[in-house]
């Protein structure tokens, strides 16, 4: 039986496609459209895709409550079992969901994540928190650009466009970012890793200045049988390397479908 935390928040959910279900778990300060907008139509070609935005207010969050909330939304939209595609903070939420609800979760794709944030990640998030608390959206935008993207990507922005990029970032900080950043600071799923018992692909990002790829490698090393893939570029992979990332995610599910079909095919021979 699925047990749900009484603190589980109500999420805003969008649904696309039909077929085996995939639940999306976005990053801190992100959102379903921002993190998965380009991926959703590709997955929805042959899957039911369920994407839930984390709360837009700053009510304190826990991994348990968010993990349970994703499960509640999946069930409410017709998915009794599902895989989870997760980014950044969402990877910790996905891992916790797989451990709390093993009867529901059938696979994981984890990108740009961590088992516990390292010192650099926590220091970055602390700067985010200070800027948000002070209402200094411009400084927050600068921190996001410096840590969220690779050096090559930032340096390739034409100098005359940089101020516009920062202004757009400052104007589009999602509600709930402070609460999500606070959760990143305390999140720790190291003890959960060996309890994950589903096929898992972990994707690290070689130029990630916010969440060093060593963190993703720690996830992969701790999850039994996990595959590890490292892509070039910075943390916000869906902006820097969307095609490579999309291909990696789609390849995982193609492999899962082939594995599921193999026993059935053998049984008919």
From TrEMBL:
This is Alpha/beta fold hydrolase. The keyword Hydrolase applies. Residues 20-242 form the AB hydrolase-1 domain. Gene3D superfamilies: alpha/beta hydrolase. Keywords: Hydrolase. InterPro entries: AB_hydrolase_1, AB_hydrolase_fold, AB_hydrolase_sf. GO terms for molecular function: hydrolase activity. GO terms for cellular component: membrane.
């Amino acid at each position: 039986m699925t047990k749900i935390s009484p603190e589980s928040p109500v999420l805003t959910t969008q649904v696309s496609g039909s077929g085996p279900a995939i639940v999306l778990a976005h990053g801190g300060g992100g959102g379903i459209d921002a993190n998965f907008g380009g991926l959703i139509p590709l997955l929805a070609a042959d899957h039911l895709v369920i994407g839930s935005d984390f709360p837009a207010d700053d009510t304190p969050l826990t991994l348990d409550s968010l993990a349970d909330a994703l499960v509640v939304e999946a069930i409410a939209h017709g998915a009794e079992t599902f895989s989870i595609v997760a980014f950044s903070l969402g990877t910790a939420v996905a891992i916790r969901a797989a451990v709390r609800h093993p009867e529901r979760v059938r696979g994981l794709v984890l990108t740009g994540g961590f088992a516990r944030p390292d010192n650099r990640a926590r220091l970055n998030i602390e700067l985010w928190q200070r800027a948000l608390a002070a209402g200094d959206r411009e400084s927050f935008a600068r921190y996001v650009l410096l840590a969220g993207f690779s050096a090559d990507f930032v340096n390739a922005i034409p100098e005359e466009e940089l101020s516009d990029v920062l202004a757009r970032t400052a104007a589009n900080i999602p509600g709930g970012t402070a609460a999500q950043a606070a959760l990143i600071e305390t999140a720790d799923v190291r003890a959960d890793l060996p309890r994950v018992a589903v096929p898992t692909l972990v994707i690290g990002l070689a130029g990630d200045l916010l969440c060093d790829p060593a963190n993703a490698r720690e996830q992969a090393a701790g999850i039994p049988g996990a595959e590890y893939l490292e892509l070039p570029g910075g943390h916000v992979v869906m902006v820097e390397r969307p095609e490579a990332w999309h291909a990696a995610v789609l390849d995982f599910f193609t492999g899962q479908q082939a594995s599921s079909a193999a026993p059935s095919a053998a049984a008919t021979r």
